[in-house]
From TrEMBL:
The keyword Transmembrane applies. Keywords: Cell membrane, Membrane, Transmembrane, Transmembrane helix. Pfam families: Caa3_CtaG. InterPro entries: Caa3_assmbl_CtaG-rel. Residues 273-297 are annotated as: Disordered. Its main location: membrane. It comes from Ferrithrix thermotolerans DSM 19514. This is Cytochrome c oxidase caa3 assembly factor (Caa3_CtaG).
C-alpha cells in the first residue's frame, strides 16, 4: 500500500474530463455553426460559442467539470480510497452537491432538449425525476455508499470505485434535474415545493451522519487500518466525517433553497412568471402524446 501523499494520477478521471469538455464545447460550436449557416451568416470561431450559450453557462459547466476532476484525483482520491472516512464522504458529497449541479446548470436549454430527446431517456427521467422516486434514489445512494461492504469494495477495486462514482453522479443528476426543473415538458414543482424538496434531501441522509458523529468504535476496517498515517484515530475521523457531511449538505441544499426563494421574490416583484411555459415544453408534450397514440394504435 502506497502512502496517502504518494503522487497517484487518476487517468480515468482526466480522460473523462477531457472527453466531456470536448463533447460540450464541440456541441456548442457545431450547433451554432449549423444555425448560422441556416440563416446565411458567418462568425469567427470564438463567436460561435456565444451564440446559443451564455458566458454564465459555459463558466458553470467548466467549473463543475474542473471540480469533478479535482475531487477524483490526487490527493483527495488517494485519501478517500483507503485512508479517511472524512475524505471519502466529503468527496462523495461534493461530487453530488457541487460538481453535478454546476455542470447541469451549465447545459443550455436547447442542449438539454437534445440530450433528453430519445424516448428511453425521456421516459426514464419523466418517472425518476418525480419528487418521491428521486428522493429515494438520491438518499439511498448516499446511505448505500456509506455501507461497510461498499466502502471496502471501492477500496479494493478501481473498477468498482469508478462505477460507484458514476452511480453517485447519475443519482445526483436525477435529484438536481427535479430540483432545478431542467427536464423539458415535465410538471414543475412550485417554489415552495422545491424548497421542501431540497429540505427533504438534506434531512434523510442526516441519520447516518449522526451515527458517525456519536460513534464509539470504527465501522470501516479499511480506513481504520491506515488512518494512523494521518495522525488521528479512526473514531475521531468518523466523528469529523459526520460533522463535515452535515456542514456540506445543509450549507449547499439550504443555500440553494434560499436562492430559489430570492429568485422567486424578484420575479414576483416584476410580475414575471418564474416558471414560464416554453415552446420546448409544448413540443415535448406533443412528442409524448404521439408516442402514446402509436403504442395504442
Amino acid at each position: 500500500m502506497t502512502g496517502p501523499f504518494t503522487l497517484s494520477i487518476n487517468l480515468v478521471s482526466l480522460l473523462a474530463g477531457v472527453m466531456l469538455a470536448s463533447m460540450y464545447f464541440g456541441a456548442l460550436f457545431r450547433y451554432a455553426k449549423r444555425q448560422a449557416r441556416y440563416i446565411g451568416r458567418t462568425y469567427s470561431p470564438l463567436q460561435y460559442f456565444g451564440l446559443y450559450s451564455t458566458k454564465k453557462e459555459r463558466a458553470s459547466f467548466t467549473a463543475g467539470l474542473f471540480l469533478l476532476v479535482i475531487l477524483t484525483n490526487y490527493p483527495l482520491e488517494r485519501l478517500a480510497q483507503s485512508y479517511s472516512v472524512m475524505a471519502y464522504l466529503g468527496q462523495n458529497l461534493l461530487i453530488m452537491l457541487a460538481a453535478v449541479p454546476l455542470m447541469l446548470d451549465g447545459i443550455p436549454r436547447w442542449m438539454m432538449v437534445k440530450l433528453t430527446g430519445p424516448r428511453l431517456i425521456d421516459t426514464a427521467l419523466a418517472h425518476l425525476t418525480r419528487a418521491v422516486p428521486s428522493t429515494f434514489i438520491f438518499s439511498g445512494s448516499i446511505v448505500g455508499s456509506m455501507l461497510t461492504a461498499v466502502v471496502s469494495a471501492q477500496s479494493n477495486s478501481a473498477i468498482f470505485r469508478t462505477g460507484l462514482h458514476i452511480e453517485l453522479i447519475a443519482a445526483a443528476g436525477i435529484m438536481w434535474i427535479a430540483a432545478l426543473g431542467r427536464l423539458p415538458g415535465a410538471r414543475q414543482m412550485s417554489t415552495m415545493g422545491r424548497v421542501i424538496y431540497l429540505f427533504a434531501q438534506s434531512l434523510l441522509p442526516s441519520f447516518p451522519a449522526f451515527v458517525l458523529i456519536f460513534s464509539q468504535h470504527s465501522y470501516y476496517p479499511t480506513f481504520a487500518a491506515h488512518i494512523h498515517a494521518l495522525g488521528i484515530s479512526a473514531v475521531a475521523d468518523q466523528e469529523l466525517a459526520g460533522g463535515l457531511s452535515k456542514v456540506i449538505s445543509l450549507g449547499i441544499l439550504w443555500g440553494t433553497s434560499v436562492a430559489i426563494l430570492l429568485k422567486a421574490n424578484r420575479y414576483e416583484e416584476t410580475g414575471a412568471d418564474p416558471q414560464p411555459l416554453t415552446m420546448e415544453d409544448v413540443e415535448r408534450e406533443f412528442t409524448r402524446s404521439e408516442r402514446k397514440l402509436r403504442d395504442q394504435g
